Amino acid sequence: MLHASARSRTRRLSGVAALIAAAAIALTGCTAPAADTEQDPGAATGVTIEHAHGTTVIPEKPKRIVALGWMTPDIVAALGENPVGIEEVWGADESGYLPWFNEYVTEQYGETPEIIPYAKEGPNFEGIKALKPDLILGLYTGITDVEYERLSEIAPTVPYINGPWDPSTWEEMTRTVGKAMWEEERAEELVTETEELVSSLAEAHPEFSGKTFVWGLTMPEGSTDLGVYLDYDPRVRITESLGFTSTSAMDSFHQSAEGDNWYTGVSLEKLYDVEADVFAAWGASKAEATATVENKIVSKWNPIANGAYVIYNNQAEAAAISSPTVLSLQYILPKYVEDLSAALQGKPTNSNE
């Protein structure tokens, strides 16, 4: 079980203080079935998308899209529409935008979307309504059924497909947004292009093959366990797709995880039983990361003792790998593979904030 303070740390990665725990960035890592987004066979009126709160019909190709939460804004922009409004999320820089998103929309569209002012509880309905959207997308959010009904009064709304803060895989999320935007073919092209990027990076680093790893997070002061992610977390899946193999301790991680959580904790007294050639993690600060690797127990754990670790304390880097999209992966993967390669040579990464 994660120490209470570790749980609080993990919530921060989601960008919402009330999120149940673990980055979700990240993120959640829960692998979920693909959305039922089949064309309505009897209707020339549009497409239908089945989701956790019911069914949404999108009668025509949308042009004014509000993209709520993580990941969705990236996909909307990559599919050919600059969102008319987005929310500021964890990892954004001083401009209020994630750096790769800011760069992409500025280059492609010449302007950035409006940032919807923060509302104390739930979506900012008035701010969203003022943008006059014809589609609201919030696949990586915690939109409740009541909030969904209110948003649907403004425009057709697609919330999460299976559960709150569960975006499924980046591939399926891309396909769902593509369906909602009437851009299925382009969405499939984006998935293929991104998968080819991952494959090319894996091929360029044959040294990754057969190496084991653990993905986790740094420890707050006073913690007695190390937070780690399960094999359906996006950070873990991406690292596996690059050629690495998850630790043989993954089965024990699953046994200790509570409910549907995509994370758990390893007691420091059992850490030496966890096999890993590399440890990858995100941290709240460089100071916290340094304190973690210098902990008298953690410092003797194989990947730390060998200098084989990659820790991202920079929020944008952590967000990019924790909530992967067709844009964020282009931003982070080249650096990530170089950092992993260096770690295998005993050259650790402990990035600046």
TrEMBL record:
Swiss-Prot/TrEMBL keywords: Signal, Transport
Ranges of residues in domain Fe/B12 periplasmic-binding: 64-344
Signal peptide annotation: 1-34
Subcellular localization, as worded in the UniProt entry: Cell envelope
InterPro entries: ABC_transptr_periplasmic_BD, Bact_iron-sidero_bind
GO annotation terms (biological process): iron coordination entity transport
Keyword Lipoprotein among UniProt keywords: no
A GO cellular-component term linked to this record: outer membrane-bounded periplasmic space
Protein family (similarity comment): Belongs to the bacterial solute-binding protein 8 family.
Protein name: Iron complex transport system substrate-binding protein
